[in-house]
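Case study 2.
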Amino acid sequence: MNNTEDLIPWGPALVTGITRIDEQHRVLVDMCNEAHVLLQQHATTERTKGIVRDLMSYALYHFETEEELADSCGYNDAHAEENAKHREQHRAFANAVAGMQLDMSRGIAVSIEALFDFLRSWLTNHILGMDMELGKFINSKNGAAGNPSSA
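Prediction:
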């Protein structure tokens, strides 16, 4: 999915240059865009719960990948404060989504608009900020010789 009505348009500005991270970001963006369309068409509580659960599951998998890459390339040694902030942002995202899941399990309605505003803002800002910095570091460590798809 990539059209003018996407919640989060995919484009070169979101590319870190790290294949594995970029592929996972693209999956997250596509999941958000597809969920946005589905929930605009028919937003039931059960459908919303399922979409939030799936997004959370994939996001946690992605965060683990980023954190493993940061560890393996020495990012924490070179940029301990930035690495700690990066991980804190991951935890804050997980806590916010877990809070939404808890609300839904208690029968508290979650605004679809608020959910997607949160996802769009968080993903875009996180990718353009923390993930770009991590990407620059990994790319500088690996030089121009290649793109570390499995670094």
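Confidence is low (pLDDT under 50) at residues 144-151.
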